[in-house]
Amino acid sequence: MHPFVPRLHSFSHSRRSCCAHRVTWTGPSVVVGHDWGAMMAWYLCLIRPDIVKAMVSLSVPYFRRNPSMKFVEGFRVFCGDDYYICRFQEPGEMEEEFAQVDTPKLMTKFLTIREPDLLMLPKNTWMAGMPKVSVTLPTWLTEEDINYYASKFEKKGFTGGLNYYRAVDLNWELTAAWTNAKVQVPAKFITGDLDLVYHMPGMKDYIHSPEGLKKDVPLLEEIVIMEDVAHFINQEKGDEISKHIYNFIKKF
What we know:
This protein is α/β, with parallel strands linked by helices. It contains 14 helices and four strands.
């Protein structure tokens, strides 16, 4: 699930492959999530490990809770006020700026980012970086996909997606009781080497250090970094992701 990519459509690329495998579970479930879906999956595993048999996280690792600094404050300190998560905080502000841009072009730009730099959106000026001509789409993304996504946001607007980011500090407050707690669920983490999240300040060290992700998720079995793959990994590499998911969850 990603707040700017309707979830059923975004997983259709990997779902086609997964459907070739039949796995039946009883009792606790296996959870798979991408981006914000991954965040929700991590929270579920943290809070209710008794109902989760195993989990696969795409793109977003577990975030250790810092009891002395809220999420947005941390992003402002390490990434600056123009960082996209910081810009998304003020209700109505980004909705107004997004409305000034052709929605299909906005979705194309958003879905085809491959530069793993910090995503900065300077107020009222980032729109100048929008493509002036048609962009050649990658093989995993079609005009039909773009038009589908655009039609949903043209109908409902972007507030629903932006509100996920506006709730990060509320999530921080609500999880105070789990400060320093470990995620006690078998897990596998998969990301691309061009993913924006992978290149956030300190993220690589956290993911690969024995004192980082592995310490917070003691039952983490594998970390997979896919080469030349960006953020929308389940679409870009649907078959490979499906195999990774199936080969992991069939053990449970």
